[in-house]
Amino acid sequence: MLSLRERPFVRAARVAGASDLADHVRAPAAERDADVAAVRRVRRGVGRCFAEASLSFLGFGDPRMVSWGQMLYAAYISGSIRHAWWSVVPPGLCITLFTASVFLIGRRTSAS
């Protein structure tokens, strides 16, 4: 917030004599910066979640921990991946929807 005080558009508003306007101009820019930072943190978390699910699916995960990758791995090892679609679709769909939703929220936030 303090770094925005020195930006050219705030200085121009002060030169024009609008000291209160500078505060109103500064707030949306700070909110946008905070939104972008939050989306970046969530993306990092999604990347870690996706990496964990991938490693668990390959059999490198902790067998005591329940995760979407572990569920897919168990379905693959038991052979039910071919015959019991209901053991594969929910975790796969959850991974897909979660990743797509974070991607779309990130695009919406960075576009505004």
Give a description of the structure.
With 112 residues, the protein is mostly helical. The protein has a domain at 34-111. Helix content is 76%, strand content 0%. It has 5 helices and no strands.
The run of helices and strands is HHHHH
User: How many H/I helical runs?
Assistant: 5
How would you sum up the global shape?
elongated
Taken as a percent bin, the fraction of beta residues is: under 5%
What is the radius of gyration computed over CA atoms, rounded to a whole number of angstroms?
Answer: 23 Å
Task: Give the fraction of residues assigned to helices.
Answer: over 70%
Structural class determined from secondary elements: mainly alpha
The main pleated sheet reads as: none
Sum this structure up briefly.
The protein is 76% helix and 0% strand. It has helices at 8-15, 19-57, 68-78, 80-83, 89-111.
For the structure shown, list the relevant keywords.
112 residues, mainly alpha, elongated
Layout of secondary structure:
Elements: H1 8-15, H2 19-57, H3 68-78, H4 80-83, H5 89-111
Helix pairs in contact: 1-2, 2-3, 2-5, 3-5
